[in-house]
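The freezer alarm interrupted the setup, so I double-checked each line after restarting. Inputs confirmed:
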Amino acid sequence: MNPFQYTRSLAAAGAIQSVLKEPHAHFLAGGTNLIDLIKMGVVTPERLVDINPLPLKGIEKTATGLRLGALATNSEVADHPLVLQGYPLLSLAINAGASPQLRNMATVGGNMMQRTRCNYFFDTAMPCNKRSPGSGCGALEGINRMHAIFGASPACIAVNPSDMNVAMVALDAVVHVKGPKGERKIPFADFHRLPGDHPEKDNTLERGELIMAVDLPAPAFSQHVAYLKIRDRTSYAFALVSVAAALKMDGNMITDARLAMGGVAHKPWRLHAAETFLKGKTPGDDTFKQAAQIAMQGAKAYRYNQFKLTMAPNAILQALKTASA
Amino acid sequence: MKQDKIGDPLDRVDGRLKVTGGAKYSGEYKVPGLTYGVLVPATITNGTVTAMDTRAALRAPGVLAVITPFNAPPVPGYQPGAAKPVKGLKLFNDNQVHFNGQPIALVVAETFERATYAATLIKTTYQPQPFETDFHKNFDKGVVPNEGKYKDYVRGEADAYKNAPVVVEQDYMLPSEMHNPMELHVTTAFWDGDDKVTLYTKSQGVVGSQRAISTAFGLDPANVQIHSRFVGGAFGSSLRTWPHEVAAVQAAKLVKRPVKLTLTREQMFTLVGYRPLTIQRIGLGASTDGKLVGITHESHSQTAVYEEFTENAVNVSRFLYASPNANTRYKVVPLNVGVPAPMRGPGEATGSFALESALDELSYKLGIDPIELRLRNYTYTDPERNLPWSSKYLKECYQQGAERIGWDKRSAQPGTQRDGEWLIGYGIGCGAFGAYRSKTSAKIKLLPDGTVNIQSATSDIGPGTATSMTLIAADTLGIPADKITFQLGDSSYPIAPTQGGSQTVSSVGSAVHDACVALKQKLNTLAGLSPDTTAPIDYAGILTKHNLPMLELTQDSQAGDDAKNYSMYSFSAHFAQVYVHPLTGQVRVKKLVAVVDGGKIVNLKTASSQMIGGAVGGIGMVLTEEAVFDDHFGRYVNGNFADYHVPVNADIPDIEAIFIDKPDPIINPVGTKGLGEISLIGVAAAVANAVYNASGKRIRELPITPDKILMA
Ligand SMILES: Cc1cc2nc3c(=O)[nH]c(=O)nc-3n(C[C@H](O)[C@H](O)[C@H](O)COP(=O)(O)OP(=O)(O)OC[C@H]3O[C@@H](n4cnc5c(N)ncnc54)[C@H](O)[C@@H]3O)c2cc1C
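Predicted 3D structure, all chains:
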């Protein structure tokens, strides 16, 4: 850990100004990811800008849906009556992540921004293009069991580890950010990015931009939902593969579907083609298997994550079965 | 007043202290003038340190010293020609690096944070050498250890299984597993002058620690005081004194102040041992009616290039079942890794996983129920040593376990029982662990208020040693448990063995028993009675009458010669009911029944806890735990609690512990055989065998994670 400055901000504009002061300044929310990374020497900040005093904790109804303040904790969101009623998929996904103690500290913004859990990223004694651009990718030829099967690049095969993000992308959430150039909205699906040649960039936020809130559209999937997370122990482990599934049913017909995967790509992985395929179909193993097959198109595995090519379609099938039951 | 008896479920005597934070662990002693030591690990896997620039570190605020191979004050026991040379790694004694993570410097500062920061400022130049960490690649470089008991063993004919009518021949793999107790390893050391040193250290044996530190520094053992009153779990990782403990003492001498050195969780993966990666080949040959005609058990496991580590992986196959022919081969593969250490159940648990899995495979080949197969090969004497068992109730274990798990509901056909989407299966796995007893001594003191204090230099790493010793004393003296205090974890007390090998109750319990008997004899004599009178006497009254301020004696205790004429083991049969999800590969243990012949049970409550804890360790071994290693870099990739998966509550089902509870007539006066290891031995096979029964998938490489189920 290196010595650094610490600033507490009372207003968003001030926080943004403070974080622009040094090239390596970071917002501090729950701290459950950032502090670990600082201790490991992965992040060496010059300044931490504590945003906890900002009034961004609210969970409120809006004209079109629900607004989640960037500082609302993961527990507050998962347990909120309006979330449980209108967006049960989000609640399931959040509760599948981490532990109660962590969820009590972790925030909406922090969860979105959490870094990959790739072991090479975490260990400064090994190469990682994400941590130290140009040093190489240790995972490519190394232990890549947890790694991507979609959208990876030769520079980086890490995955986004968040469970919450998988539900958010499935639900078409919209991110509100404020930065030195003003405010803007980013569709959740465009918030995270694929690694390409710049794996050091996890997302499309620009320097100094602060997440203010995440908007959910009007509730559309409040009944037939499932979040399936396959992991190495029953609780408190990151996903090998996870699937968020939400169906709208009219009698025995699927009228709308949302499907996304976690643990498979550098961003939460929305499965549009499979969703389109499901529309107008009646639920059943064959239909679901075909949807899974469509979803898996373009998948590519590495030495230790070959199993994901089997596990991912199985997980889609199982999640759709559960959601439609 | 109620008389506490051996066998009662007595609450832990230190339970309240532990749950209220009153129990002081080794890292919690606030010694005046305390300083903090932080280790700097090497980031190469083999080679030499050619230079270290410590200037920035030394200039950093609060830094008192930086010890490196280039300036380390000599440790007498490390020097060539030392009277008693120290075994294993000698930190900072030379500039060689044998494994990645080996400490190459120790920073001492006024605070932990300052030492941690200064450690990052050291610039090291290395001359790296090629290294070997890949176990599979180096498999053929395995060597037979020097120690006699690891030499090849043959009874009858070697590899006789190959010619039997029914043959199973399979390889089984266990990854490296870390002990990972919750409490980090920590040592606080301080000197008094040049020849006396005191340590608060996490230790399973204060007498062993005293010996090791006095050897390293050429001190009179009486001048080395070791305190380890409470230990937050160890599982074998504190059986020995590690090089970093010596380094803490070395640093304290240099800075002339107390030094506290705490390992980080990541350092716990490289510096305090682990269960070694092991590949075992089992060959079983049987007649068509299920009688074993040959057992062959071979094992290869990793060790360090700088020190040989061995354990009893293959031994179980020599004696657990009757077979005219049996042979074992055991080899270790030296690699550029830290040295392993015994981890709960040690080699016996490793070996039992392989043997009991193979036996299960044989049962399906033969079409014979796994319990019936074990009964057909039951042995009433030890076929390895040709001796009678001191006691053996394994048959009773099979029977009671089968009843409690509902074995009659097991389908002989794998993959045929369902509960909704989940497949159901049942499995059994058995084990044996030597019942040991070492020479031990206890001091007993009777005070005029009728209370009794007993001291012995044993440890309590969690089983509830003080509680069971209190119960043995209460029963033997015929006074209530709350009138007795038992003290441990201090090297100034009478000698006791290290708490390992499941021998504490047998060894220390015998000393406590014998000390109580001796005290009672003395009091009987004072009271004018025959020494062996068993009738209750008024302890305090006798002291008052004879005007004695107290009565104190120290009693040695050790096994009689008779013990040599018997083979002494604890036995276990573990039963698992398991659910397997065929689509997701998830495995859920639904119920576990552990039945143990561990001789007489002293405290039903702590004994049950011991069995449950062992079963949890077994579930970790079979389903979740693996220290993952990258052979390109020679480093563990999951050296933390997020990625190294110890089981969580959600992984743990109802665990039922059942005791045969029959005293062993030979081993010791109380008749106890030991539980610590046997509680884990056999669990992995029981679960793996149940997974097969549920799903038809035989996973021979632990841990059984969802990917392996799907890819099998
Ligand atoms: C042991 C362990 C297990 C875990 N398991 C899981 C799991 O299974 N599933 C899962 O999904 N997660 C898991 N997590 C991760 C956890 O969800 C994240 O650590 C948490 O969500 C981060 O939120 P935080 O508020 O603590 O973020 P912080 O640590 O405070 O910040 C993280 C990052 O976000 C940035 N940031 C924070 N808020 C804002 C904002 N408003 N605008 C812009 N940038 C911002 C910070 O600058 C920092 O870079 C686990 C974590 C741990 C330690």
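Quick read of the result. The first helix of chain A runs from residue 12 to 19.
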